[in-house]
Amino acid sequence: MTLIHRRQALAGMAALGLAGAAGRPAFAQDKNLRVHTSAPGSSSFVFTTTWQTVAQQSTDYVMNVTAGQTSTRSTLDAAKGQVDFYISSPAINHYMKNGIQMYKDMADAPELFKNVRSMVNFPLGPYHIITYADSGIETLEDCRGRRIFIGPPGGAATTVGLAIMESATGMKPGDYEQAKLDWTSGQQAFQDRQVDLAIIPTELPSPAVMQFALLSEIRLIGIPEEATQQGPLQEMLSIPGRTIQDIPGDIYGENQINDGPVKAVGSWVGIGTQKDVPEEAVYALTKVMFENLAAFHGAADWMKFFTPETALLQMNAPLHKGAYRWYVENGHQVPPEAMPVEAS
How far is the C-alpha of 11 from the C-alpha of 17, rounded, in Å? Predict the structure, then answer.
């Protein structure tokens, strides 16, 4: 099964879930919630649809999920009151709050950010820098003149990929050919060998990378230590939600030809909301999430790290008052940077 076919199947299952919700008795308008998530098959998509399932089993809220959305756009939509819940990003929060990067030409971005609220955070996983063993690429320096995929243009992940390339090699687009594709098309292009290298943020272990390793021998490229201490990558690693972690050299089996672990940029994301979503809705949906941790932990190995304690890590937007209420009632210490505006 190709990546596209697998994702189409996942999207179909999500659609069935939404169709089932549509067949339930009608609720009041505020029981129907608009939810954005990322592409089918991604870590964030799995998290969102698991949450959707437990919410619809245990509450009377209907989560109407739209997949394939970018956090850059969804954060802006939430700030404008056009979406209720979405996949958030500490890095994007930083950019929007300060009116920089993709928001630099948007004068009202910092003011709009005041409408953004948080619920939980979780690790998205490391940025896998992946090539085929026979590509002739053994280090990032070997990418000069090659076609590489680093994410959809304008996305936060693409910003990280560009920073990795520049800090490790001094190269910018033009020194290599940047394949300007969405996530699904980019990963399919890598599988079809239409690109020579891909930089993909995904869970560990990643089903997508496992798929690549089933087809051919792969090599993961590590980030040189000096690259983390210079250029745009050094600046990026100072932003909440970015870490450095190791990817084991054998995690993808015998077709992964690395001799040992490789260093990668780790990334955190979360579930964001906006200040005007009713407190009771956010409280109930936070509560159902943590009361059904077994469902999350059973959905994917990487989600076993998700707990009420880790959900408050790397947070740099204030909690929604409904989420804050749940954490306080259950004895969890909320860090100062996550305190709701209403509690200050």
Answer: 10
210: exposed, middle or buried (C-beta count within 10 Å: 0-12, 13-18, 19+)? middle
Count other Cβ atoms within 10 Å, centred on residue 62.
18
Of 223, 240, 267, the domain-final residue: 267
pLDDT at 6: 41
* Statement to judge: residues 297 and 335 lie in one domain: yes
Domain range holding 283?
3-124+269-343
Same domain, 241 and 136: yes
Dist. CA 112–CA 155, nearest whole Å: 19
Give the pLDDT of residue 293: 97
Q: Which of 70, 120, 91, 92 is nearest to 285 (CA)?
A: 120
**pLDDT at residue 125, as a whole number:** 86
Low-confidence ranges of the chain (pLDDT < 50): 1-28
Residues 337 and 276 in one domain: yes
pTM: 0.76
User: Can you give the CATH number for the domain in which 287 is found?
Assistant: 3.40.190.10
pLDDT at 290: 98
Same-domain status, 95 and 137: no
Domain count across the chain: 2
- Do 146 and 259 lie in one domain? The reply is yes
pLDDT at 320: 98
Query: At residue 247, what is the residue type?
Result: I
Q: Could you tell me if 248 and 132 lie in one domain?
A: yes
Rounded to whole angstroms, the maximal C-alpha distance in the chain is 59
State residue 124's pLDDT score: 85
